[in-house]
Structure formats: C-alpha cells, structure tokens
Amino acid sequence: MRSFRTGRAGAVVAIAFVATIGACNRTSDDAVVATDTGMVMVPAATALRVDEIEIGKSLDADKSIGNETDNFGVRDTIYVAVETEGAGSGTLAARFTFQDGQVVEEASQSIAPTSEAWHAFNIKKATAWPKGKYKVEVMLDGVSAGSKDFSVR
In this structure, what DSSP letter does residue 75 have? Predict the structure, then answer.
C-alpha cells in the first residue's frame, strides 16, 4: 500500500515538474492550466491587429468587399473593408487623400471585436470625383496599418 502512494505522489510531482519546465520554455503567452486529468496548454488571446485591407464598389453582408477593384468612375461610391484579427478594442480610422496629398475625407470608428471581423468605410460625392490617383490609409489606434492606392477615371 505504501508503494502505491509513493508511486502516485511521484507521478504527480513528475507531471508538475514537466509542466513547469514546459511553461518556462514557452515562446508565446499561452497558459498552462491544471485540470482533473493533468496540465493543459490553453492558447492566449491574440492582440487586435489589421489583417487585410480591400477596396471596391460594393460590400457583402459581412462587410467585406463584394466587387474588388482599384479603378472607379467619377460618380462611384468607394468602399474600404478592413479585416481585423484578435480581440480587443481600439479606434479604426481611414484617411482618403488625393494625388497631391490633399485630405479628401477622414473617418473613424470605435471597434471591440472578439475574433476575426470586417469593418467598412465609404466615401461618396454629390458631384463628380476629380480624375486622378487617390490613396486610403488605414490606422489602428493612430498607427498606420497599411494603405491602398486607387484611381478615378
């Protein structure tokens, strides 16, 4: 009977030791959690970040671009879809500029996704857009997350 207790205690100590060593050698923020059946690695939440920027002439139901293009007509509405990954909250912004650097429009929105999500911006004009080259820069919490060039013909 005594050897059974010693053996079981030794096994528990060995499992705890291996879990501790494994936790020390981790390169991510994953957590080691004790369960009834032993130690389990639980992935850490990914920080909020911009994964993709698309531009086009329409949006799908999930707010992604339905008709992706970088060429627009003078009367088109221009849509920008931004895919974020991870969880967290922040301010997502889009700055539209004309070829000379003149700001055409800026827009922002507070976001708090818990996983992958799409967010949309659009610009339209009552009169014709001036023909030329444009750019949209997307920022997350004031830090540039990427840009896309497009033109109006």
Answer: T
